[in-house]
Write a structure and sequence with these properties.
Blueprint: E1 4-9, H1 21-24, H2 29-39, E2 44-49, H3 53-65, E3 72-76, H4 85-93, E4 98-102, E5 124-127, H5 132-141
Parallel strand pairs: 1-2, 1-3, 3-4, 4-5
Length: 142
């Protein structure tokens, strides 16, 4: 089994630690990613964030058809979760399994956030457990 796992974060997640800390917390994702690398020293963890849908799709294609084998994709597509058939199609086009993560509980927020286009093409969804959801998704792949 490959020891490579990638976390892909979508739009506005580059603002973690600054944006709505009452919902998303006060820690930046870069700080948390360092904690994850310490927690999983046996893995080669990779991180990619983009505010652009096409860049996320390109990264998924690269993972699925690139030279490096990945055991899994942990994806928090942000608002694209609720709008992007294209990201869902990209995930279904690659053999690399994915787990969907949401920091907040999308089912207790605005109605438009209750639907995810990604869920049907992911192994599972972790929602509402804060940044801890990323750790849980990584553990799934182990």
């Amino acid at each position: 089994m490959s020891k490579n796992i990638i976390i892909i974060n979508g739009p506005n997640l580059n603002l973690l630690g600054k944006r709505e800390p009452h919902i998303y917390g006060s820690q930046t994702f870069e700080e948390y990613f360092e904690e994850l690398k310490t927690l999983f020293p046996e893995l080669a963890l990779h991180y990619f964030q983009s505010n652009h849908e096409g860049a996320i799709i390109d990264k998924i294609h690269e993972i699925g058809y690139g030279y490096t084998e990945f055991a899994g994709i942990v994806i928090n597509a942000g608002a694209y979760t609720h709008t992007s058939v294209a990201i869902a199609d990209a995930l279904s086009a690659v053999k690399t399994p994915a787990v969907e993560v949401h920091i907040s509980n999308i089912h207790t927020r605005e109605t438009f956030r209750h639907h995810s286009y990604l869920t049907r093409v992911c192994k599972g969804m972790i929602t509402g457990l804060g940044l801890k959801g990323y750790e849980m998704a990584i553990r799934y792949f182990l």
